[in-house]
Specification:
heterodimer; A: 660 residues; mainly beta; 11-stranded mixed sheet; 8 helices; globular; B: 139 residues
């Protein structure tokens, strides 16, 4: 009896434990963080120490103004490339050579809001030569050379304001475009804001890219009605020669846009046949408008930038390009304008729309040929919605934003409000899979996902908010990227990792397309910087009035010279440092105590100049900031600062040799 | 120890020796690197001397002087101290030389020259020209 009692007690206890365990289990199953994890994710993102990732990923740094580079699938950050923002870490924007890169018609701007990275393409496929990125705030486009991972060109966009719809390119990188987010008066002038509908215009800039050098030049601007241009993409295949720009605020509101620009059921995609516009321009159309914008170019041989101010731009009005521009109605405040790998389908994410419209290029051209229009806007014909439509994707999630493609017949759309990625079949328009992301996804990206041949293995969700995903860091939290495996029928989350700034958009490319042309050093023989010294025999300190030039060299592990005397209060000192190393991964840094400027890093074979205005009398140490060798700590020296009017002569030395 | 054992030991010894030489440990006086043997004309080639001096002044002089010690050894009479193959291999392959060549390693670890020599992106022709510059200094 007693035994039975014990047994039934144990059975009871066992059942109780099971119930409790089951309830815990069902709780943990509801926990969003463990959803979809099946156990072998870690091995799919694990890259053995010393091994390379399969893809480079170039992510916009958002409000940091820079671009970050990650290895995928590991999610390891490889580099932050300074673009629009100064970077005291290496001297970008602080060295005399790099300052012109941040020059604009507004003067020196130390910051911007970087949004969309865009790889150059050949035959509609990313080629690994350059990556472009737009500055949204003070309208600019930068080009980064992937041989050096350095920003080598920045062009300002006049008549534009909020360069958001940018810098999307064509299948052979003939153009990058810049559609304005804000409409403003063209040319900008003092008018009442309430004159918006009459005085404001939206400029779309077509920037020609040189096939060999990558050099950008504004070819022309199309001046359109005062809508807000959001994103764009060029056509390809059958639609090659066209650009598709989404726009919102067809209501032409100038205040409380979240309400006033959300009134109409449909806004527009503006379809532009730019090859036809090219012909029209060649025929002499367009007007040269006086304006002002900066064009900044970095030279890898002089290791310095030049900034040129340009005073004119060619503008075209809708009546100049008749037959080359059409509005396609599109629900509702559309964001992405995305063209599938075949070039036949154009889709747009309407932020407030309950469907994703998919337009067929063949139907658009048919609608144009048969003149199926519903009026016009600002002199541009509006095509009939249904005539252009291939179909609508129903139930695409709340707030569809941006779509990319896997090259296997599927499209993937980010939905901001419902925080999910929705996979759908391009032909049938049926949703086939969906996966939650954490949280509030903006863009998404598949390597080559906007090109003719996507590498459809991974998708990266670029999330605006992370809330509880990581250890908390006070009120300001990181944004994130989430890596999703799209190789099978069902999407699977593999990894998430923090990003710098807000990763608006990113593009990826197989690593070997970039690594094959990497530069390891700058050849000292080719250094054409006017302040370079190619031998320590030329090291010297020169006074010119109250300006002192120090021409010196760095090598492991000393500066030549490393003792400098004769600098006085009231002087401006320019340190022209040449790194005479010719070995990979041996930059030298340079810093002076109390310099109200920055440090600088100088790559092997490069010359950089750091300005210093001494502010007190005394001995000021200088040293190498980038750990270069076993005796890096010994790589140091002194500068003697004497009182104004003192008679200490210029003197410099290394070791026991003194020179005057 | 029986006969079989000693022949196995001998074999192991031979294999070990071969593998050591395979690692580049053959003649320490020739050094380790791309230059295995070099035939020099007795006469100095003046054009080569000029090229060699130009490269030396750009890429080497920041650490090496001819007559005095800076970071590396003074190079006066280097062609009398070292074989030409060793000098060229030191220029072309300094990292491996300092780690594996007994002469270079001793110089680096003796405390006299603590900063290891680095590669300065010179070609074999460049190294040959620098050697000629040294020969001219030492004649």
């Amino acid at each position: 009896m007693k035994k039975t009692n014990t047994l039934s007690k144990s059975i009871f206890k066992g059942i109780l434990i099971l119930i409790i365990a089951a309830s815990f289990y069902s709780c943990s199953e509801k926990d969003s963080k463990t959803l979809s994890m099946s156990g072998d994710e870690a091995s799919k993102v694990y890259i053995e120490p010393g091994k390379y990732d399969e893809f480079y990923y170039f992510m916009s740094g958002g409000f940091s103004g820079q671009m970050s580079v990650y290895g995928i699938p590991s999610g390891r950050m490889l580099k932050v490339i300074p673009v629009f923002s100064v970077n005291p870490e290496n001297g970008w924007g602080y060295t005399e050579e790099s300052k012109p890169m941040l020059n604009t018609s507004y003067g020196f701007i130390p910051w911007d809001d970087a949004h969309h990275s865009e790889l150059s393409q050949t035959d509609g496929v990313p080629d690994g030569r350059w990556v472009f990125i737009n500055g949204n705030n003070t309208p600019r486009i930068a080009r980064i050379d992937l041989k050096t991972f350095k920003t080598t060109e920045i062009i300002e966009i006049p008549n534009s304001s909020g360069n958001h719809s940018s810098p999307f390119t064509t299948p052979n990188t003939d153009y990058v475009v810049a559609g304005t987010r804000f409409s403003i008066p063209v040319e900008n002038r003092d008018v009442p804001i309430t004159s918006y509908k009459e005085e404001f215009k939206g400029a779309l800039s077509f920037i020609k890219v040189d096939k060999t050098t990558g050099r950008m030049n504004i070819d022309y601007q199309i001046i359109t009605p005062p809508y807000d241009y959001d994103l764009s993409h060029s056509g390809k295949g059958p639609s090659d020669g066209w650009f598709f720009f989404t726009c919102y605020n067809s209501e032409e509101a100038n205040s409380l846009l979240e309400v006033n620009a959300s009134q109409k059921d449909k806004d527009f995609i503006l379809a532009i046949n730019y090859k036809k516009v090219d012909e029209i321009v060649k025929g002499g159309a367009g007007k040269e408008m006086s304006t002002k914008y900066a064009h900044n170019i970095w030279n890898d041989e002089t290791h310095s930038a030049t900034s040129t101010m340009i005073n004119t731009v060619k503008t075209l009005l809708p009546e100049d390009i008749k037959g080359a521009a059409y509005y396609i109605p599109c629900p509702k405040s559309p964001h992405g304008a995305d063209v599938d790998p075949t070039g036949e389908y154009i889709t747009a994410g309407g932020k407030l729309s309950t469907v994703i419209p998919v337009f067929a290029f063949s139907k658009i051209t048919k609608a144009i040929a048969e003149n199926k229009t519903d009026g016009e806007a600002g002199g541009i014909p509006i095509l009939n919605y249904e005539a252009c439509l291939s179909g609508e994707v129903k139930d695409p999630g709340l707030g569809p934003l941006h779509t990319e493609f896997d090259g296997k017949g599927f499209a993937y759309t980010s939905s901001f409000i419902s925080s999910e990625v929705v996979k759908w079949n391009i032909e049938t328009k049926q949703v086939v899979d969906r996966i939650p992301v954490y949280y509030s996804i903006g863009h998404l990206s598949i390597p080559g996902g906007d090109s003719k041949k996507p590498w459809g293995k991974y998708l990266i969700a670029l999330n605006k908010m992370t809330k509880d995903r990581y250890l908390p860091t006070g009120p300001e939290l990181t944004q994130s990227a989430q890596l999703i495996d799209i190789s099978g029928d069902k999407m699977r989350i593999l990894l998430d990792f923090p990003t710098i700034g807000e990763p608006h958009y990113a593009q990826g490319i197989p690593a070997e397309l970039v690594t094959k042309d990497q530069i390891r050093i700058y050849k000292i023989e080719d250094n054409k910087n006017p302040h370079a010294i190619k031998s320590i025999l030329d090291a010297r300190v020169e006074r010119n009035g109250s300006v002192v030039h120090v021409y010196f060299a760095a090598t492991r592990s000393h500066f030549t010279p490393d003792n400098i005397e004769g600098v006085k209060l009231g002087d401006t000192v320019y340190f022209h440092m040449t790194n005479l190393e010719q070995d990979w991964d041996i930059p030298h840094g340079f810093a002076v105590m109390g310099n109200n400027n920055s440090e600088m890093l100088v790559m092997p074979g490069e010359t950089c100049t750091l300005k210093w205005v001494p502010s007190r009398v005394g001995i000021m140490p200088m040293y190498c900031t980038d750990f270069c060798s076993a005796l890096h700590q010994e790589m140091q020296g002194y500068i003697r600062v004497s009182a104004q009017g003192s008679d200490v002569p210029i003197k410099f030395s290394l070791g026991d040799e003194k020179k005057e | 120890m029986n006969k079989q054992n000693s022949s196995i030991l001998a074999l192991i010894f031979i294999i070990t020796m071969i593998s050591y030489t395979g690692c580049g440990g053959n003649d320490p006086e020739l050094g380790i690197g791309p230059v295995k043997e070099i035939k020099l004309e007795p006469a100095i080639n003046e054009n080569l001397v000029a090229t060699g001096k130009q490269i030396f002044d750009m890429k080497c002089i920041t650490c090496h002087q001819i007559n005095s010690k800076l970071v590396g050894p003074p190079l006066k009479d280097v062609t009398k101290r070292r074989k030409p193959e060793w000098i060229m291999n030191m220029i072309l392959n300094p990292v491996q030389m300092v780690q594996e060549n007994m002469i270079a390693k001793t110089l680096a670890t003796s405390g006299q020259y603590p900063t290891p020599m680095t590669f300065q992106n010179v070609s074999q022709d460049d190294a040959r020209a620098i050697l000629e510059y040294f020969r001219n200094n030492d004649k």
